[in-house]
Amino acid sequence: MKYLGLLETDDLYSDLLEDYKSYGTMFRHFFNSLPSRSHELQYRHYQVKQGELPQTFDECDAYLITGSKTGVYDNERWIEPLSNWIKAAHDKGAPLIGICFGHQVIAHSLGGYAQKSSKGWGVGVHMTTIEHRPAWLNDQRSHMRLIYSHQDQVEQLPPKAKRLAGSRFCNNASFFIDDRVLTFQGHPEFTAEYFVRLLERRRAAIGDEILDAGFSSLDQPTDADDIGAWILEFIQLQR
Fold first, then answer.
1. Does the annotation count 90 as an active-site position?
2. Residue of 60, 126, 187, 233 marked active site
3. 52 is catalytic
4. Each residue of 56-113: pLDDT tens digit?
5. Of these residues, 100, 126, 150, 233, which one is catalytic?
6. Structural domain containing residue 177
7. Do the beta carbons of residue 94 and residue 128 sit within 8 Å?
8. SS3 assignment, position 57
9. How far apart are alpha carbons 149 and 218 in whole angstroms?
């Protein structure tokens, strides 16, 4: 049985706590509900904003860094320790998974670059084209769809990273480094209901036209379960 460390980098809004508990809990429910799940996971939660990080790199078989309202460029006291931990973990060969902010902070920490994009908000179901596949991934699809909610983007990939998927709006939507790093800008763990409840409060910042188009896109199917299966496959690679 594999252990997944969930590095939680944000707290849910108070009105979402009762139904969704935490970002780490959302990932647990997501992985545990996958129809293609063939392996059991155990979980360990780390509250990064409270200064909690793994003390050794072998506490878990892999580590997933969640999304956050914070940007990698923000002056928050927990970002530098997290970035330093990511660098050290990667140097030691610890497997890293990043989602949204996690995707950005891993890229930024390992020599890439993330920032607020001049393209504005990306919200709703977004399709990206698969460009490169890691050797371990047995999936020949050409595109993937996920729910997105972001202003920031990875503008430059880290050295040795390969773009897994991208689009004209989000060039570096997913990347990997061998069998040690796997990241996605989109949110496989988001449900349509959670997305609507989260984003409605940001209507003034996002704008009616963009947000309403994002809500309308939720009628499209996503590949969240398949991407979840990819992440499980990535975890199972680890020894």
1. no
2. 187
3. no
4. 999 999 999 999 999 999 999 999 999 999 999 999 999 999 999 999 999 999 999 9
5. 100
6. 2-237
7. no
8. coil
9. 12
For the domain that residue 94 is a member of, what is the CATH number?
3.40.50.880
> Nearest-CA neighbor of 65 among 91, 104, 30, 31?
104
In whole angstroms, give the CA distance from residue 9 to residue 102.
8
Is 132 in the active site? Answer: no
- Residue 36 — pLDDT band, cuts 50, 70, 90? low
Which secondary structure element, helix H or strand E, spans residue 122, and what is its range?
strand 122-130
Active-site hit among 90, 103, 126, 189: 189
| C-alpha span between 143 and 205 (Å, rounded) | 30
Phi, psi of 208 (to 5 degrees): -60, -45
- Amino acid code (one letter) for 184: F
Number of domains in the chain: 1
Using CA atoms, how far apart are residues 158 and 103, in angstroms rounded to an integer? 11
- What values do phi and psi take at 4, rounded to 5? -110, 120
pTM of the full predicted structure? 0.97
- Integer-rounded Cα Rg, in Å, for the chain is 16
143: buried, middle or exposed (CB in 10 Å: 19+, 13-18, 0-12)? exposed
User: In 3D, which of 17, 134, 130, 5 has the Cα closest to residue 58?
Assistant: 5
Enumerate helices (H) and strands (E) in the chain, giving the number of each. 8, 11
